[in-house]
Specification:
By secondary structure, the protein is mainly β. The chain has one domain: Ribosomal protein L28/L24 (Ribosomal Protein L24e, Chain: T). The chain contains one helix and four strands; from the N terminus they run ββββα. The longest helix is centred in the last third of the chain and has 5 residues. The protein is elongated. The chain starts with 12 loop residues before the first strand and ends in an 8-residue tail after the last helix.
């Protein structure tokens, strides 16, 4: 399973960690994803969405 938001498409990105001595090592930043049950086309389904999409009410949670 990929670490991708089903709503906005946010995904893992890579870059360099830079120390105080300016040493560069590779690292990754992962999105903050949560599994949420929601209504999709009349049926209940589970989506992996980032917390920013959850906070901005792109979907309605099914309780």
């Amino acid at each position: 399973m990929a670490r991708v938001c089903d709503i906005c498409g946010k995904h893992t990105i890579t870059g360099n960690k830079v120390s105080h001595a300016k040493n560069h090592t590779r690292r990754t930043w992962r999105p903050n994803l949560v599994k949420v049950k929601t209504k999709i086309g009349g049926t209940t389904g589970t989506l992996k969405i980032c917390t920013r999409c959850l906070k901005s009410d792109f979907i309605t949670k099914k309780v």
